[in-house]
Amino acid sequence: MTIGIAENTAVAGPALRPRRDDRLAARLARSAAERAEGAGMRTEDFAAWLEERGRSHRFAVGRIPFAELDGWSFAPGTGDLAHRSGRFFRVEGMRAQVDEGPFRRWEQPVIRQPEVGILGILAKEFDGVLHFLMQAKMEPGNRNLLQLSPTVQATRSNYTRVHRGSKVKYVEHFTRPGGGRVLADVLQSEHGSWFLRKSNRNMLVETAGDVPRDPDFCWLTLGQIGELLRRDNVVNMDARTVLACAPVAHPGSGALHSDTELLSWFTGERSRHEVRVERVPLGRVEGWWRGESSIEHVDGRYFKVVAVSVEAGNREVRGWTQPLFEPVGRGVTAFLTRRFGGVPHLLAHARVEGGFLDTVELGPTVQYTPANYAGLRGAYRPPFLDLVLDAPPERVRYEAVHSEEGGRFLNAESRYLFVEADESQAPADPPPGYRWVTPGQLTSLVRHGHYVNVQARTLLACLTTGTVEL
User: Fold this and answer.
1) 105-112 and 90-97 as β-strands: parallel, antiparallel, unpaired?
2) Which of 89, 136, 192, 380 sits CB 3.0–4.6 Å from 356 for a disulfide?
3) How far apart are CA 401 and CA 415, in angstroms?
4) What is the pLDDT of residue 206?
């Protein structure tokens, strides 16, 4: 018997739509090319605008002892640091065991925040050019407090108003996006070293309707945001991760490894690693001690858990207290770059981090805090770290200091770089755990959740916005 598909049906079915918008990449490219001026804002005027927004509200952050936390306390029995509402987040303990590296077993405090937040940027076309609605947002952990953030940057507890504060502006465009056009929508991880299996919904939504602009918001082109990414501590982490999800096109159709080969290698990396993670009471985490104002490692390395009091005149709640993680030392995060057949490639690392939902995610070539590895030599020294630290200026294609997530981390900064390498420094056949990928391949992988880590997405955002040419 032969079973066929009828060519004619009596009743017409639903209309089919294209599986993808082939015009979107060109529209994003045009927005990235507009670098000097946007709708109502010249790039050269941005610094003055941000400074003026800072003067328009009162912002203050001060360290306090744990005893002065309002609504937060250490739970009897476990010692976990939690909010009385049971929402927001908890500081718990984590025990991790991995099968590679100089540190194969450790315990540490970790942030557990199972609810999924929204990081959303609203897009709109002005005079034929896509613009993005960005917010001057205060976060208590930012060294300079006020940075450029997405249109919406809110946990579920915040946008459902557990804090009984004011409504999150523009959130309806992302909780009910039916009135707009979704350009990107994917669950992405946060810092796997400090969060336990944390995800946020990263969204780009285009609207054709009128959008009243709040004074703390501005419309910028992709190129203008790219120019601001050249400056230290201006574009916050949440904006960078959303921008990395933009489906831009990158030059070059060839690659050192085909997409299937790359995915097979990545799947193999996930399969071969054995990572054991379990939650433990914060009060019984080995190697850490609690004082009146901080929880610290006995060696004085890695990070501290501290408490702060916050005043913010333009936030949904004007004042609050909370714990923050404060790293000891500045991080260094870099992609090594090379050209193969004239096509730019990045050396990605299949990184194991205790807080990942899966065993590994693709990270940059180097992602370390050098002070944590002081004194280590030979095989115990992280690969390629010294190459990046000692890179001559002529090999550095991009360098800027960016803050990590300012809502949970205090003064957490990393020096982000693209560093050009050669065969003797970074061979075409790299060490196990590393693989050369093109920017286009990395952009394709970002469309999937938990494939590319947040540090790699920061550097990818620099390529998405045209900040860096490799």
Assistant:
1) antiparallel
2) 192
3) 4
4) 97
* 10-residue mean pLDDT series, the chain (470 residues): 51 85 94 93 97 93 97 96 92 94 91 94 97 96 96 80 71 85 96 96 94 95 98 98 96 93 97 95 97 97 97 82 97 98 97 94 97 86 96 98 97 98 98 97 96 98 95
Domains of the chain (ranges, CATH numbers): 259-276+328-464 (3.90.79.40)
Query: For residue 234, what are its two tokens?
Result: 């201006």
Q: Where are the beta strands (DSSP E) in 248-392?
A: 276-280, 288-290, 294-297, 303-312, 319-327, 331-340, 343-352, 360-363, 366-368
Tell me the pairing of strands 413-420 and 331-340.
parallel
Q: Is 118 left (phi over 0), alpha (psi -120 to 50) or beta?
A: beta
* Structural tokens at position 102: 């100089």
pLDDT value at residue 378? 83
- DSSP-assigned letters across all residues of 89-100: -EEEEEEEE-SS
The DSSP symbol for 115 reads S
Contact 129, 30 (CB under 8 A): yes
Question: Is the Cβ–Cβ distance between 338 and 430 less than 8 Å?
Answer: no
Tell me whether strands 366-368 and 331-340 are parallel, antiparallel or unpaired.
antiparallel
User: Burial of 378 by CB count in 10 Å (0-12 exposed, 13-18 middle, 19+ buried)?
Assistant: exposed
Number of H helices, E strands in the chain: 10, 24
Q: What residue type is assigned to position 140 of the chain?
A: P
Q: Give yes or no for a contact between 197 and 110, defined as CB atoms under 8 angstroms apart.
A: no
First to last CA, the chain: 58
Quote the CA–CA distance of 187 and 449 in Å, as a whole number: 5
The pLDDT of residue 100: 82
Q: What is the dihedral of CA 301, 302, 305, 311, to 10 degrees?
A: 110
3-class state of residue 402 by DSSP: strand
DSSP string, 22-68: TTHHHHHHHHHH--SB-SS-BGGGHHHHHHHHHHTS-EEEEEE-GGG
Q: What angle do CA 338, 339, 341 make, to 5 degrees?
A: 155
Q: What token pair was written down for 125?
A: 């076309």
The predicted structure's pLDDT at residue 401: 98
